[in-house]
Specification:
Enolase-like, domain 1; about 350 residues; HrcA_C (chains A, B); DNA binding (chains A, B); five-stranded antiparallel beta sheet; Heat-inducible transcription repressor HrcA (chains A, B); homodimer; three-stranded antiparallel beta sheet; Arc Repressor Mutant, subunit A; Beta-Lactamase; elongated; WH-like_DNA-bd_sf (chains A, B); DNA-binding; 3 domains
Chain lengths: ~350, ~350
Amino acid sequence: MLSERRLEVLRAIVQDYVGTEEPVGSKALTQRHQLGVSPATVRNDMAALEDEGFIAQPHTSAGRIPTDKGYRLFVDKLAGVKPLSSPERRAIQNFLDGAVDLDDVVGRTVRLLAQLTRQVAVVQYPSLTRSTVRHVELLALAPARLMLVLITDTGRVEQRLIDCPAPFGETSLADLRARLNSCVVGRRFADVPQLVQELPDSFEQEDRGTVSTVLSVLLETLVEETEERLVIGGTANLTRFGHDFPLTIRPVLEALEEHVVLLKLLGEAKDSGMTVRIGHENAHEGLTSTSVVAVGYGSGDEAVAKLGVVGPTRMDYPGTMGAVRAVARYVGQILAES
Amino acid sequence: MLSERRLEVLRAIVQDYVGTEEPVGSKALTQRHQLGVSPATVRNDMAALEDEGFIAQPHTSAGRIPTDKGYRLFVDKLAGVKPLSSPERRAIQNFLDGAVDLDDVVGRTVRLLAQLTRQVAVVQYPSLTRSTVRHVELLALAPARLMLVLITDTGRVEQRLIDCPAPFGETSLADLRARLNSCVVGRRFADVPQLVQELPDSFEQEDRGTVSTVLSVLLETLVEETEERLVIGGTANLTRFGHDFPLTIRPVLEALEEHVVLLKLLGEAKDSGMTVRIGHENAHEGLTSTSVVAVGYGSGDEAVAKLGVVGPTRMDYPGTMGAVRAVARYVGQILAES
DNA sequence: GCCTGGCACTCAACCGAGCCGAGTGCCAAT
DNA sequence: ATTGGCACTCGGCTCGGTTGAGTGCCAGGC
């Protein structure tokens, strides 16, 4: 087991390295932190920490840098979540208020988060299946062509075009619209498949085909993976790190463009509380030198989606976690109001 | 005026430089192209081209590279638009078919364009004001709270929440919905402000406040600059160029994140036909070493929005232009069908 | 047993010199 | 107008030497 002081040394190394981006040596450490011991002692501690795999040296005769395992220990045991300053809180509120619709909320959130953390921000749209049905609308665009519009309590709107097998009368349409709504409004989208199961049976024979078509489109829209959307921002912040660029930045940008990958990544995060995935803990290859800080957000107590940031493993974890948490809370509030 | 051969030399320089990314010298030129003259002659031509400002040398004793002016001449006079191969055409069609809604169409388009050109793709959503009204829906979420949903002929859907000054009865709502639709469906959104001007007058005194509120929200939604949306993709392709990265890539990424800038850029492009803006022709500072190839697309003969790519001035113009044009055509077709 | 000062060693990063070669400009000859 | 010849330039590369931060180890002290 590691002694108290060795943990302190690790904390100091992480903090210094995050600040300077340069490997930190024993002498510099004793100067910048009051550890109360000499460089030689620190060297011994460092050797021990290296044996345990918490730190490493890029080359012999260089300082130490934390390993993924070192950051993990730091995040779990040595660091808390740094609360935001009150000007920052006010800035968040000002920035987020005045959004006109959900797209706007999400857009502002991603910009805000990117600016606050100076890293790449990722915001997932509220999941359909985790939201509640506010309204289902059916519009006749042509005799045999409908548009289905789903509206959630979080303000998300999805629409689909439907080609009907047969023309569908205006009265049938009104009928279907009314029955559909009375059966699903206020319920969770996840339950919709079950709720509408027997709906076609109550219609005239000639309309059943169309009703089934409508329902099958509705169900398709709710399929996981398809129904998730996300927005990213702040990619310019990637250029702030490691000057060995093309190599570092390339795979990250590529990974960020694959929304499926990101969604999976966010999906792996715990539903409640904050999740930090460090370096190789991320399954995707392009992201093995980055960390992901993610948290769920929602209009109520339950998370309807996740948001977070992607940055180098060498990031300011307490500050980033604080910003992510604060933004998630405010977004939740905004959504609850709408 | 430049002789025929000198133009030929310029074309050769552009082609070689685009291919190799290295300054091209007189000797290499004569080897790779059958110009029928000796390197010395080419050197004279190069000196002339340099005097005219079409090419430049990075340092003394280096080869020449085209200037923005050189590319301009190349694009205007020396190069055509390279049509896509038929496998490429088929790939486009396959990729674009099977999109389920407008978001999907736009998303696929941006990925397609990025992949095809290996550059950064930018796709603008069909402009509201240039589209036609397919339907306007008003939903009561609460007694004094409505949701306005606009649907265009291109499949774009916009929604807004409305807080009413007073409760609004179901019959009044149905009334407003009906009158609103009968007055705007099939008309261009740009004309809507005028069309709805006198609508409040025909309502009972007590409902006029709400009707005006609804209309003002409707009009706000149609304000230019606000109503434009766009999607970008393929940013990872930026890493393929110039190994002097952080400096080159940073401002470009930043510019790409400022959608307002991009919208303005696209807005400057001609409505019909293809527009190529080279290097310093782009007003925005971050984009002075990039070129933008943009073209309008639409479901009919009129452009409802633009799409294009952003890449280094040193790009394959004929190929890029071919891809951009082809994609725009197919997207137009897809939109017309929906 | 833990801490400390001292010491020899390592090695990346930083010059500066020198070479190399692609490429140029100029000129005289065709 | 075109060409071959020639002297010149200069960025990029390699090589050797120096520097200094940092390490590991050890012997002595608390």
